[in-house]
Amino acid sequence: MSSDTMAMPLPRQRTRNFFRHAAAWLISLVLMALVGEVIVRLTLKNQERAVLYPRYQTAYHYGPYTLRGIWPDAHFRHTSIDGSWEFVTNNHGFRDTRDFPYTKPAGTLRVLALGDSHTQGYEARQDATFSAVLERYLRAHGRRAEVLNAGVSGFGTAEELAFLENEGYRYQPDVVVVAFYANDFEDNLKANLFGLDKGGLVEHKHEHVPGVRIQDIIYSVPGARWLSENSYFYSFLLNNVWEYFKARLARNAVTEYAIATQSASKYEVDLALALIERMQRYCRAHGMRLIVVDIPSPGKAYQSTESMPPAAERVLQGQQIEFVSSHALFADYMGTVPLHVPHGQQHISELTHAAIGVELGRRIARAP
Asked: Is the four-CA dihedral 328, 266, 158, 219 of positive or negative sign?
């Protein structure tokens, strides 16, 4: 042992050893991350699994409900092999550069669009979502209109109902558009905000913010946000963890309700219909028009299927709920053009957004 080491006080030596070990660990982690990034970029970057889709969500409080929503006043990008898309949100987390006061401007037709990531516009430009197309259509046809895109990735019909009754109505919409997608059946179970008891809709709980608290911790770390938008390795790890917890949440819901997940069970369909029927009653009581639009599910070779089963459509029609059928809207498109983005997470394409926006515009513009 050298005389220098022997002369060094023990606490100082321990401190120096600690920092040496910490530095070695840090260097090792950085090197492993760099190696992982290289591997992912070489093997997965050009595959549909490699996406940079950061989920910037936080908790919002609407009356008795605590629900997730996009960060307010945010600016970020999503990237995949199919392109890069800019997201800008307003002060309430809507995908819009404008802030909307609760009080509707005089002489303005206001539309509130509710839905999940398809409505929010994953894998679509901000001005190409069906909400943006709908607003331009109405204005081009002489209506002073505002369309509020309140879509939130992961939302199901249950969260949309809770949002409508406790926050959405405050914007005084004349029309409420609810975009229904196939995974809403399962999402309603996972949220467990509502259930059925003897055929009637009952409230189970008032909070559903999956992943938000974990996000709060992750994004409090310096550099985490930059990694989420630029590192394929980081995104690959985070997405796999996210999918694991989503699957676990789904399994818990399936266990509780003892249903199959290959296709929507009778309970899932009945719950979704009960949620939509309550939306209709609420809209009628508040002088709002409800339109439910079916978001097509992707198939093979430029094919797609309806999200809402035909039998459920007939129930909605029997309840006099206005319904836009994706089968009827896109019948002439089958086998000819892609209705969904081919890679990434296969959200509806900008062509599909445009067709939905125009069809909604036709229906709304015809009304006095």
From this structure: negative
Encoding tokens for residue 199?
Answer: 């055929």
Q: Contact, 68 vs 212, CB < 8 A?
A: yes
Shortest CA distance to 90 belongs to which of 104, 77, 101?
101
Tokens for 61, please give them: 């409080």
Q: Which candidate, 362, 277, 360, places its Cα nearest to that of 326?
A: 360
Question: How is residue 346 written in tokens?
Answer: 């296969």
Place of tokens 């037709």: 109
Cβ neighbors of 361 (< 8 A, separation 6 or more) are 133, 134, 137, 138, 141
Phi, psi of 265 (to 5 degrees): -80, 170
Q: Which residue has the tokens 């006099």?
A: 320
The whole-angstrom separation of Cα 189 and Cα 140 is 40
Picking from 205, 202, 190, 204, the residue whose alpha carbon sits closest to that of residue 252 is: 190
Angle made by CA atoms 280, 253, 244, in degrees to the nearest 5: 115
Q: b/e for 170-194, b at 16 or more Cβ within 10 A?
A: ebbbbbbbbbbbbbbbbbbbbbbbb
Of the candidates 181, 155, 187, 191, which has an alpha carbon nearest to the alpha carbon of residue 308?
Answer: 181
Q: For residues 155 and 170, give the distance between their C-alpha atoms in angstroms, rounded to a whole number.
A: 19
Distances 219 to 67, 98, 227 between C-alpha atoms, Å: 19, 25, 10
* Per-residue pLDDT tens over the stretch 185-241: 999 999 999 999 988 999 999 999 998 988 888 888 898 888 888 877 667 666 666
Q: Where are the alpha helices (DSSP H) in the chain?
A: 3-7, 10-43, 117-120, 130-140, 157-166, 184-191, 212-218, 224-230, 232-257, 266-285, 310-318, 326-329, 350-366
> Does residue 36 register a pLDDT over 70?
no
Q: How far is CA 185 from CA 6, 157, 168, 222, 259, in A?
A: 70, 8, 22, 37, 12
Give pTM, 2 decimals.
Answer: 0.85
- Residue 93 in contact with residue 136, Cβ under 8 Å? no
Residue 211: exposure state from Cβ atoms within 10 A (0-12, 13-18, ≥19): middle
